[in-house]
Specification:
Layout lengths: L3 E6 L9 H18 L7 E9 L2 E8 L27 H11 L3 E7 L3 E7 L1
Parallel strand pairs: 1-2
Antiparallel strand pairs: 2-3, 3-5, 4-5
């Protein structure tokens, strides 16, 4: 099924960091969003990057199945997974990459409505 992807990026965003690691973190988050959209009508992902108070704020939002409230604290734990085919490495790696760059990652989710990951660097 087709996914509607919206990308909103401020012009001329430059940050200091390891390009390959940051790219991997973003790929992992987008991959997670895509997996959450499997059985959703009108699947959408919104990727937004902007500079706020001299920091990059990147958000990746989907209208997927959402994450259950009691599981949200565990999603960054290495080897924790709620997926049959999951390794539990993706999100813990994202958090490590963000930490290496002295950043912060947060997640907000509502079951049946969607999930937003937000990275501040």
């Amino acid at each position: 099924s087709n996914v509607d992807v919206e990308i909103l990026v401020d012009n001329f965003i430059t940050i200091k960091g390891d390009e390959k690691l940051l790219e991997q973190a973003i790929i992992n988050l987008i991959k997670n969003s895509l997996e959450a959209l499997h059985e959703v009508e009108n699947p959408k992902i919104k990727i937004e990057a902007k500079i706020i108070e001299a920091h990059l704020q990147l958000s990746i939002e989907d209208n997927g199945m959402g994450i259950e409230t009691d599981k949200i604290d565990d999603i960054f734990v290495p080897f924790y997974t709620s997926k049959e085919q999951g390794s539990g490495i993706g999100l813990s790696l994202v958090k490590q990459i963000v930490n290496i760059h002295k950043g912060h990652i947060s997640v907000s989710s509502e079951k049946g409505i969607g999930t937003t990951f937000q990275i501040k660097l």
